[in-house]
Amino acid sequence: MKSGYIVVEGPIGVGKTSLARRLADALDARALLEMPEENPFLERFYRSREQFALPTQLFFLFQRARQIQELKQGELFSSGAVSDFLIEKDRLFALANLDTDELRLYEQVYGQTIRELPAPDRVVYLQAPVDVLLDRIRRRGVPYEDLIDRPYLQALVDAYTQFFHHYTAAPLLVVNAAQINFVDRDEDFGMLLDYIMRIRSGRHFFNPMAAS
């Protein structure tokens, strides 16, 4: 199966990186993953959001755009790639975290930075309730992520919901990820992989709870 360029998206803790890794392995594609550990402002952002929102966001924007640009210049269309971020997601976080003047500056930089970046062939949007996300965030044990509170996470979930309600740039699969275990259960992963690869256009929904 040729993967093309697949993007897995969703809020913090939903499992997008884990799924992206498994998809890349299964499809013999390149994994294009976020590297939050390289952002020197991230921990400071979670401790003081207003003070460090702009440098944190600009670092991520440049980092993500550079990764996609390097992929575009490489063998993207021959070997395929699976990413755990959609470049447009960067703006969701900017809208949630920047003040008016910062956002005005960010928008100018954003518009220039994402020009001519390739669109995905498929997007997989993982959804889960905030309680599930908080539990997963706590269990993975990243110290600064303990500073993520419910109101902030709920705001991000709402922003993702609104964004993907209007998303039409690529074929979209919306996945209820609250119960499915695509990391440890091969059956769950196999069902989801089959569904992803059958998508060619439009908007689709995968709800394993409804199917069980």
Strand order within the widest beta sheet = 2-3-1-4-5-6
> Strand-residue fraction?
5-15%
* Oligomeric state, counting identical vs distinct chains: single chain
Largest beta-sheet characterization: 6 strands, parallel
CATH level-two architecture: 3-Layer(aba) Sandwich
Helix content: 40-55%
- Which radius of gyration do the C-alpha atoms yield? 17 Å
Classify the fold: give the CATH topology: Rossmann fold
Properties at a glance:
212 residues; alpha/beta; Rossmann fold; 10 helices; 6 strands
In short, what is this structure?
The protein has 212 residues and is α/β, with parallel strands linked by helices. The chain has helices at 16-27, 42-47, 49-73, 76-79, 89-97, 100-113, 130-140, 150-165, 186-198, 208-211; strands at 5-9, 30-32, 81-83, 122-127, 172-176, 203-206.
3D architecture notes:
The protein is α/β, with parallel strands linked by helices. It is 54% helix and 12% strand. The protein contains ten helices and six strands; from the N terminus they run E-H-E-H-H-H-E-H-H-E-H-H-E-H-E-H. The chain has a six-stranded parallel beta sheet with strand order 2-3-1-4-5-6, with helices on both faces. Strand 5, helix 9 and strand 6 form a beta-alpha-beta unit. Helix 3 runs antiparallel to helix 5, helix 3 runs parallel beside helix 6 and helix 5 crosses helix 8. The longest helix is centred in the first third of the chain and has 25 residues. The chain is globular and about 45 Å long. The model has no long low-confidence stretch (mean pLDDT 91).
Describe the secondary structure blueprint for this structure.
Elements: E1 5-9, H1 16-27, E2 30-32, H2 42-47, H3 49-73, H4 76-79, E3 81-83, H5 89-97, H6 100-113, E4 122-127, H7 130-140, H8 150-165, E5 172-176, H9 186-198, E6 203-206, H10 208-211
Parallel strand pairs: 1-3, 1-4, 2-3, 4-5, 5-6
Helix pairs in contact: 3-5, 3-6, 5-8, 7-8
